[in-house]
């Protein structure tokens, strides 16, 4: 248990660090995880700005065991108990070319989130290498890694602070005009404009409560302000009402324009549009290709398509439409 106290005491000191890192890593605990094991080398090189290529070279990964890192979260302890350090990725090899959109799909536990976390070096690979812009992420400066990559997860976190402050974590020197532009791009400007305090509205449980879809759009506004060349996106599985869903989709297509994207896909439209779909199963890529090829191949993807994607995007039943004004 004493192992837990160190990181918890350190929490107060790393607040500022955590806040700015959140824009990349989005969840406090993932950032705390990052600190104990992940260090910048003295001779680290910056990733060239605007780099869009991501490469996985025969990546093997198992989560560190209790003896290898100081555990940052109770979540970690539970996860370690659960898995007993089993290999999670077993020879994952792929390239995302600059500007491409690659969709990761696969059954629960296949290793999709783990793969996405290795790009921003939340953990180091056990074997093989992950390269961003041609630089092994273990040799890259942490700042350049953070500047290059933006992450939007399903549970994007907003702090109990004003909207402007929440946005400034993405870009501290953002002007009000920059913020409004980002909010417009993220399809949430009208809403913020209608609030009595506008950008100075305090958000959170004791302030203005955004809905799930609105929170996601604020997270997308942060991404637009930050301008990363690579976006890691975990598409929401949570049900949003259809209007909010459509707004999030419009915001996302704006955010992904011209960028490299690695998407943990839950939507049919995403897999249809993807330049490449990687089908993960038990830590290996078992199929890869475009939607129509993979459906025709009749393998695991075809099955996932039938059971997950086709169902997820089926039209709402007629009575739901009738209920709308
Ligand atoms: P889902 O679709 O359910 O989110 P996924 O394909 O994203 O699944 P991962 O979350 O990458 O799968 O998990 C892959 C494996 O790694 C699972 O067996 C999971 O239990 C394990 N795992 C995930 N996080 C940790 C952790 N922090 N420590 C130890 N094992 C973990």
From TrEMBL:
<protein>
    <submittedName>
        <fullName>ATP-binding cassette subfamily B protein</fullName>
    </submittedName>
</protein>
<feature type="domain" description="ABC transporter">
    <location>
        <begin position="72"/>
        <end position="307"/>
    </location>
</feature>
<comment type="similarity">
    <text>Belongs to the ABC transporter superfamily. Lipid exporter (TC 3.A.1.106) family.</text>
</comment>
């Amino acid at each position: 248990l004493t192992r837990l106290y160190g990181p918890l005491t350190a929490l107060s000191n790393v607040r500022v660090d955590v806040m700015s890192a959140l824009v990349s890593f989005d969840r406090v605990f993932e950032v705390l995880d990052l600190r104990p094991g992940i260090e910048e080398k003295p001779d680290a090189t910056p990733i060239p700005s605007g780099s869009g290529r991501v490469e996985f070279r025969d990546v093997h990964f198992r989560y560190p065991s209790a003896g290898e890192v100081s555990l940052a979260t109770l979540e970690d302890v539970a996860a370690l108990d659960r898995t007993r350090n089993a290999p999670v990725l077993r020879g994952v090899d792929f390239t995302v070319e600059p500007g491409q959109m690659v969709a990761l799909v696969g059954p629960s536990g296949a290793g999709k989130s783990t793969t996405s976390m290795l790009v921003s070096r939340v953990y180091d690979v056990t074997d093989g290498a992950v390269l961003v812009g041609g630089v092994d992420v273990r040799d890259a400066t942490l700042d350049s890694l953070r500047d290059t990559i933006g992450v939007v997860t399903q549970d994007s976190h907003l702090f109990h602070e004003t909207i402007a402050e929440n946005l400034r974590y993405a870009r501290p020197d953002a002007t009000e005009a920059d913020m409004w532009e980002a909010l417009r791009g993220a399809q949430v400007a009208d809403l913020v404009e209608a609030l009595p305090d506008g950008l100075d509205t305090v958000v959170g449980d004791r302030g203005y409560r955004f809905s799930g879809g609105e929170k996601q759009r604020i997270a997308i506004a942060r991404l637009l302000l930050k301008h990363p060349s690579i976006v890691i996106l975990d598409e929401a599985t949570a049900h949003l009402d259809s209007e909010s869903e459509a707004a999030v989709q419009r915001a996302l297509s704006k955010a992904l324009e011209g960028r490299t994207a690695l998407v943990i896909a839950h939507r049919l439209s995403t897999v249809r549009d993807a330049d490449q779909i990687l089908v993960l199963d038990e830590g290996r890529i078992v199929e890869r290709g475009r939607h129509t090829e993979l459906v025709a191949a009749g393998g695991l993807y075809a099955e996932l398509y039938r059971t997950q994607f086709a169902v997820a995007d089926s039209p709402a039943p007629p009575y739901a439409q009738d209920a709308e004004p």
